[in-house]
Design a protein that fits this description.
Elements (H helix, E strand, L loop, with lengths): L1 E6 L2 H4 L3 E2 L13 H8 L12 H18 L7 E6 L4 H13 L2 E7 L8 E6 L2 E6 L5 H10 L8 E6 L12 H20 L5 H11 L5 H4 L3 H13 L4 H9 L6 H10 L6 H15 L7 H12 L11 H7 L3 E2 H12 L3 E5 L11 H5 L10 E5 L3
Parallel strand pairs: 2-9, 3-4, 3-7, 4-6, 7-9, 8-10
Antiparallel strand pairs: 1-10, 5-6
Length: about 375
Amino acid sequence: MKSYGLSSVSEFLGDQIVFRNLLPCDPQIPGLPDLREKLGFPADFLPRKLMSEYGKVITEMVRAARWNSDANASLERIIYIGDTRMNDGQAFLNICRASSWEGVIFIGADQAGPVQIEIEQVNSETLYYASRWKALARFEACLAEQAFPIDEQTAVLFDLDKTILGARGRNDHVIDAKRLAAAEDTLKAALGSEYNPDLFRDAYQLFNQAAFHPFTADNQDYLVYICLIVSSGLISQFDLANDIRNKQNPKFTTFLGYVDQRRGLLPERVRQIHEDVYGRVRSGDPTPFKSFRHNEFKRTVEHMGQLSEGAPIDEILAEEIVITAEIRDLALRWQEQGAILFGLSDKPDEAVLPTAAMREKGYLPIHQTLTHVIGEEL
């Protein structure tokens, strides 16, 4: 591995990025509220990454981004760079269907052994699965061999989390570690001297398992809230787990109601958090645990670019969330060839953008924060 100095995601994406709330950082690109009527979406509907409606929203945003930079260019092709077969693969297919663009996707992760690429054809779309991020060079060569142009008529979509930042198999563990640390920060602030780190970690590990996803909806806000309630002593981890297992269709909202009926038994700060989360869930907010997500933002940016340039690569990869050098190299080159670049993230906006108070202290959005660029030899 080699360090290529410091950079930020905005070096090649600018503000052409959209997070969970589907409000692009670039104000010239229409957000979900601007597109609802055109797409026929109800007022309170927020598409998630696996939904076909998400593909329709992203298609409109990318078309607008292309129009803003070159009104004479008409998009015909899409390249998607991501790290997961399910989320990124399905989002890619939905965008292709919504746009009718010809498409290819690269799904990468650093794995042991030689560099390998597996190719799958789904209708007219081609999916490349690679065992190393280094295989992006081979992927680019394959596109050239297949006469797949990268020019003004090409849109390149990049997943941010565990792709551009904290590449899967190389640096993604730091993203997970800092989110866990943010959860601990939140519980410590709420419980004070009553905080038990072992109890929290046991509950987090248990309810973060796939078997409990029907209950948690694989939503970190819900998971950390559950751990807070368990840590407060209102219900034991054992009793809650048994209750979930013994019901055919366990629902998080049912648990919220259970806690609300007993909110008078909660410590004051925990009760305040519960009331805020409870109200936000009832109003349809998918990111109801705001203080946790604000702590996640701080933990993340405070572990970007904080080590010296001379620090050992292994130390940087262990402590920082870094930019994937192979992706940055490709993005800058394709941008020079005329392609429009666009970033996607399913992270909550609260976990990637600073509050007004944080901005006053010098915090920048994650995509504008400098960090090390690390990768294999280019």
